[in-house]
């Protein structure tokens, strides 16, 4: 209470000035057309600006629930999209688990992110992780509530990617020295690829559903000795900004992995 | 409140209103006589009283000239600027030794010119409610400021000014 009194005592003259000026301006607006018009315009703009700011604050608090609703809707749409029949060579059964990023470390050579969903959320090791923009990485380690994901820039990350509607495929081999690009190797020498082409997941290992965007080809080099091409890919996912992810889990992947690991 | 301020306030307001009602536009503009106490004796008066008196003076002139709150807004803002300027240049010792009414005529002329010009700019700003309007009417602003300055300076020199040697 004393604080308010002290505040009023200190800035009392300023408030007095504002009050008297307001009275003068009201009188002015009532008696002079031009001043009235300008003041009306100022008031209109000021009120709109204020309403916009209040709306922004409201939206900020509303945003969280809106994000969750959108995540659930995206999950449903992803499942419809990537489980639609017929997908040649890829059995149906992809599940999408929405998750939020709680920690991230990128551009270090040991790039990883931590998600707020773990084993209790239905996630298994080596599940794929995507954002709304494209591929993010794969799950490396799990606890009950959290999952550690190695990103597309981590040297341990490797998946098969390809050009849509063609036989062109290659393996992603990250190298933090060429950040923000990643290298795609083992692309056949005769493959027709141009800078600007989009590469997507093939879905062969059931880590990712087929057709998920990975990145755009930035430049191409030809290795004449091994008769292959090396593509430099610019991933679509913006790691500085992305907050929401989807973990892709396939029921049959572990069975497929165990078969692949048979000698 | 300073007695001198009150007397000068009454006289200058009366002169302004009498000029406005009885003489009218002999010159292109009516000089703003009521500014005089706000130019001369602003330091001794308390800020809140000064602002209230500026507002009331403005309203009285507005009532006679049917300008809504134009004079009130302009004079109030001018008074606030005066007090702000006083605060920045506060020097009580200087005030005691040499009040503004005792300053040299030439010095007063320059200070008056600046002060009157500021008031006129504020006046035309509130008239058009835009800075562009002030620039557009700069000729009117300068003419009006010159008239006001001339009359106030003469009035001060004839009735208020005392040479420094008498002090």
- Label the overall shape of chain B: globular
Question: H/E element string of chain A?
Answer: HHEEEEEEEEEEEEH
Class derived from helix and strand content of chain B: mainly alpha
* Strand/helix succession of chain B: HHHHHHHH
Runs of chain A in which pLDDT lies below 50 for 5 or more consecutive residues are none
Account of the protein in words:
The complex is a heterodimer of chains A (263) and B (167). Chain A is an alpha+beta fold and 263 residues long. Chain A has two domains: 2-63, no CATH class; 89-263, Rod shape-determining protein MreC, domain 1 (Thrombin, subunit H). In chain A, 33% of the residues lie in helices and 29% in strands. Chain A contains three helices and twelve strands. Chain A has helices at residues 2-31, 33-82, 253-260, and strands at 94-105, 112-115, 128-130, 135-142, 147-151, 160-162, 169-173, 182-188, 198-201, 213-223, 228-235, 244-250. In chain A, the strands form two sheets. In chain A, strands 1-2-5-4-3-12 form a six-stranded antiparallel barrel. In chain A, strands 6-7-8-11-10-9 form a six-stranded antiparallel barrel. In chain A, strand 6 (160-162) and strand 7 form a beta hairpin. The relative contact order of chain A is 0.14. Chain B has 167 residues and is mainly α. Chain B has one domain. The mean pLDDT of chain B is 81. Chain B is built from eight helices and no strands. Helices cover 74% and strands 0% of the residues of chain B. The longest helix of chain B has 24 residues, at 105-128. The interface between A and B is medium-sized, with 21 and 24 residues.
């Amino acid at each position: 209470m004393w604080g308010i009194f002290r505040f009023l005592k200190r800035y009392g003259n300023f408030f007095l000035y504002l009050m008297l000026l307001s009275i003068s301006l009201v009188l002015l607006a009532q008696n002079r057309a031009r001043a009235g018009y300008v003041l009306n315009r100022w008031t209109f703009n000021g009120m709109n600006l204020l309403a916009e700011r209040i709306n922004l604050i409201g939206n900020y608090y509303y945003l969280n629930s809106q994000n969750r609703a959108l995540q659930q809707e995206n999950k449903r749409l992803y499942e419809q999209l990537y489980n639609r029949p017929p997908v040649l060579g890829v059995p149906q059964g992809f599940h999408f688990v929405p998750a939020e990023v709680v920690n991230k470390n990128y551009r270090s050579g040991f790039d990883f992110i931590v998600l707020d969903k773990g084993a209790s959320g239905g996630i298994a090791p080596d599940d794929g992780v995507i954002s709304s923009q494209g591929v993010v990485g794969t799950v490396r380690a799990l606890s009950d509530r959290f999952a550690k994901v190695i990103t597309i820039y981590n040297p341990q990350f490797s998946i098969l990617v390809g050009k849509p509607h063609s036989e062109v495929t290659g393996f992603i081999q990250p190298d933090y020295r060429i950040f923000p690009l990643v290298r795609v190797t083992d692309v056949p020498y005769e493959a027709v690829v141009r800078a600007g082409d989009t590469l997507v997941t093939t879905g062969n290992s059931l880590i990712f559903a087929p057709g998920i965007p990975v990145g755009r080809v930035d430049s191409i080099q030809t290795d004449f000795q091994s008769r292959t091409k090396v593509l430099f890919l610019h991933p679509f996912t913006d790691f500085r900004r992305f907050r929401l992810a989807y973990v892709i889990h396939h029921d049959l992947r572990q069975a497929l992995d165990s078969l692949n690991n048979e000698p | 409140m300073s007695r001198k301020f009150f007397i000068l306030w009454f006289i200058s307001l009366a002169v302004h209103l009498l000029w406005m009602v009885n003489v009218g536009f002999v010159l292109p503009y009516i000089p703003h006589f009521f500014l005089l106490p706000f130019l001369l004796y602003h330091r001794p008066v308390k800020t809140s009283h000064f602002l209230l008196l500026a507002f009331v003076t403005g309203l009285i002139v507005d009532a006679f000239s049917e300008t809504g709150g134009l004079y009130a807004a302009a004079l109030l803002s001018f008074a606030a600027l005066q007090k702000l300027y006083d605060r920045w240049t506060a020097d009580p010792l200087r005030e005691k030794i040499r009040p503004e009414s005792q300053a040299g005529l030439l010095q007063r002329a320059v200070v008056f010119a600046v002060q009157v010009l500021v008031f006129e700019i504020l006046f035309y700003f509130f008239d058009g409610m835009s800075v562009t309007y002030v620039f557009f009417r700069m000729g009117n602003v300068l003419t009006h400021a010159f008239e006001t300055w001339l009359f106030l300076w003469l009035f001060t020199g004839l009735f208020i000014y005392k040479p420094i040697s008498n002090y």
